[in-house]
Amino acid sequence: MSDLLKILFPPRCPACRKVMEADGTYIHEECRHKFRQITEPRCFKCGRSLKNEEEALCPECRQKKHSYSYGFCLYEYNETARTAMIDFKSNGIRRNGDFFIKGIIDELGPRIKRMNPEALVPVPVTGKRKSERGFNQSEYLAKGIGEALGICVDSDILYRVGISKEQKKLSGRERSAISLTGFEAVEDMQYKRICLVDDVYTTGSTLEGCTRALQKSGAEEVGFVTVFSGDMF
Predict the structure, then answer these.
(1) What is the Cα 210 distance to its own chain's centre?
(2) For the chain, how are helix, strand and coil distributed in percent, rounded to 5?
(3) pLDDT digits (tens, 9 = 90+) for 183-228
(4) Long-range contacts of 23-30 (CB under 8 A, 24+ apart)
(5) Measured between alpha carbons, how far is 214 from 188 in angstroms, rounded to an integer?
(6) 16, 19, 80, 201: which could join 226 in a potential S-S bond, CB 3.0 to 4.6 Å?
(7) CB–CB of 37/75 below 8 Å?
(8) Level-2 CATH architecture, domain 36-229
């Protein structure tokens, strides 16, 4: 970043939004606790924290069958997380994305590597959303993670199926159901082991839809990694 840009757009803390010192750090030390990291024990399927360390799956994953094989999430989705993610994907503050990438690499990188995915695949956004934001936030995250871990990123094998005007009028629950069939993958896909990359895990419908599309095209194991996870139980 040039000196002029640093003056006009100084780096800011993703938690408190105050200006940072130009020392290469991403967050004020006193603000780190505002991002609540998910720690062990974790649900193997969705990556959320478990209250019982003797359990392998959370209550939601025990009750509901998921097509994806595993999931890793970095932070809980609290108010600080919500604001930082909005700044990243809607306000174009890429530095927040770099902060998220570093956290995933440091805390989840070894776990991702152990799963040995052949490719990281970002969850696609609609053309309209990408045009509004100027980029796909999941693709930005995937490229940073892939470069650091030495895993290729493929943004071309998975795509969204268009949403009609009638569907936009539906409730959140109804749209969530549609997202299960709202993705398709190319037919000549060569990967068998894939790790999806997305920003936030909530109901899991989007990742489920992506997984089903990839499995239909030949993927044998699909997992995911996200920055945040919302508590569903």
Answers:
(1) 13
(2) 40, 20, 40
(3) 999 998 999 999 999 999 988 999 999 999 999 999 999 999 999 9
(4) 26/95, 26/98, 26/99, 26/102, 27/99
(5) 11
(6) 201
(7) yes
(8) 3-Layer(aba) Sandwich (3.40)
